[in-house]
Design goal:
This protein has 334 residues and is of the alpha+beta class. It has a domain of 177 residues. It has ten helices and eleven strands. The N and C termini lie far apart (49 Å).
Amino acid sequence: MFALMASTALAGCSTSDRSDGTPPEEDEAVVAPELELRPELQLLSDRIEARMTATRGRYAVAWRDLGNGDEILLHADSSFHAASMMKVPVMVRLFRMAEAGRIDLDSPIPVRNEFRSIEDGSLYALSMEDDSDSTLYARVGGTATPRELIERMIARSSNLATNILVELADPDSIGVMLSTLGADGMRVLRGVEDIPAYRAGHNNTTTARGLLELFTAIVEGRAAGPEATAEMLAILGRQEFNDAIPAGLPPGTPVAHKTGWIPAVDHDGGIVFPANGAPYVLVILTAGIEDETVTRTAAAHVSRTIWDWKAWQRSLRGESDRPSPGPPPAPART
């Protein structure tokens, strides 16, 4: 496919404007100038841009090959409601706290369903019907370990586990951590379903670049030590919602990723570990599209396009398949 297209592709194709209709608090921030890409990389960028533009929604894509440093950044500094993508920095912060001896991930903490709004201090509770993990609500009044709650927060995207853990991690400390990791495009202010804060525009937000830097820091071992890094990648690899980025990959391809969605907002991002070659980070953010089939099909197509492009590049170099080490194994726990 790419070999046929390469002969006619124009490396200097201009990028189209993003769709409008964006809430003011999520409008595009100061955008870093796009770097000129070499022709074959521009070809890939154009294919991704064309596919995402076809959704007729607002989007951002960030991709980085961790082997050679190739990058594609499309609207990468545009800010989106983070939805459940904010759960990734919460996980990282908790593992860093455990490494520093500030918390014990295996020491039980209360499971409760009562939280205070950051806007006006009013009490609110989460709805089991609106949570992708309803099973934790039966344990309200009991206890669970932070380690179990992290698993639920990431793999099942549990909102109840998230709100319990956000208070433990402290949003201000999460912000400092994100800055040190180069992920300044992310902002974590609160837990989920804080309606007074939402109405006031006090929302968790992210950019594709922010998530790109966070996932890169995780997989490169800069976000935490080796044991915590391996465990975080294993948790991300147990993600139960796999109809976007993983759906475009050959069956069985390891992907350590997180999804996030609310009405008209749909995201996926993480690290892909090919059976041959270096891993890569891919982040796809969308907004303004009500039909999740449209956004997830587009994300799967982009994921497959990148996979096929990398295979084409290997063939041009005459490289045979060679095994990749993949993600590090998670430490065994007794």
